[in-house]
Amino acid sequence: MLYYCSGSPSAKRGDRHLWTWPNSHLVAITGAGISVESGLPTVDDVVAGVSLRRLFQPRIWREQPLEAFRAFRFLAREWPQKRPNRAHLALARAEIPIITQNIDGLHRAAGSTRIIELHGNLRELKCEACEGIFGCELAWREDIPRCPTCGHILRPGFVLEGEEVRHIARAYDWVAEAKGLLVVGTELEMIPVRQLYEVAKRRNVPIAWVRDHAEDWVPHLLGQDRDADSLFCPGEV
Ligand SMILES: [Zn+2]
Fold first, then answer.
1. Which of 88, 94, 98, 208 has the most CB atoms less than 10 A away?
2. How far is the CA of 219 from the centre of ligand 1 (A)?
3. Per-residue pLDDT reduced to its tens digit, 123-160
């Protein structure tokens, strides 16, 4: 029971009530695509002279921490100014637990309270020596911030390439109990996230995979757009 959502939902109104979709116990897995409409840069963009792709690689933090922290400060200042879009808000309104690959904090800004940030977030800095976690504001006090406890150079709180994602066991528990799964704005290329999807598939629960137009599809799937002729019929399955 997998439905690919792409293009505009209004163009697909011909197939009405194609599905019965659970009206409770949904879980969402989200990726960068959900935040596109909020105006966030993609990994191919360059911020403060550093490509985002490089910022997620451990090497730049070891070899060019000055440049890396300059880009970090740019992101930590700019991203909180971005606003959640209709997709984030619809998930928050429906109180759907969210497993996200994003570090942009937009689910939290939308009002969601049950969020697993698999890749960490921009709000924190971390010390690899003493494992302390600190607020990102330390990055404004020094060009290359140091741990207030042990003096070691800090690093960002988000997960870098090759590192383990966070809280994956809890994410499995959520998906194992879900009656339906929404996949939004991710191609599920990362293995742990792909496996979460596989768990839902094996359990044969309905899965809606939103490939684009997340800001239209998510409210539509959750019965929050005004058109009564939704493609999906909420009800227990
Ligand atoms: Zn430390």
1. 88
2. 44
3. 999 999 999 999 999 999 999 999 999 999 999 999 99
Catalytic pick among 25, 88, 107, 119: 119
User: How far away, in angstroms, is 149 Cα from ligand 1 center?
Assistant: 5
The answer, as to whether pTM is greater than 0.85, is yes
* Stretch 49-60: mean pLDDT: 94
Distance 72 CA to ligand 1 centre (A): 19
Gap between the Cα atoms of 195 and 211, Å rounded: 18
The correct answer on CATH 3.40.50.1220 for the domain covering 1-40+84-121+165-237 is: yes
Distance CA 27, CA 207 (A): 10
Q: Which CATH number is 41-81+123-157's, of 3.30.1600.10, 3.30.70.3420, 3.40.50.2300, 3.40.50.150?
A: 3.30.1600.10
List the binding residues for Zn(2+). 127, 130, 147, 150
Three-state DSSP class for residue 62: helix
Between the CA of 64 and the centroid of ligand 1 the distance, in Å, is 20
Alpha helices in 14-122 (DSSP H): 52-55, 58-63, 65-78, 86-93, 106-110
Share of the chain above pLDDT 90, in %: 72
**What residue ranges do the domains of the chain occupy?**
1-40+84-121+165-237, 41-81+123-157
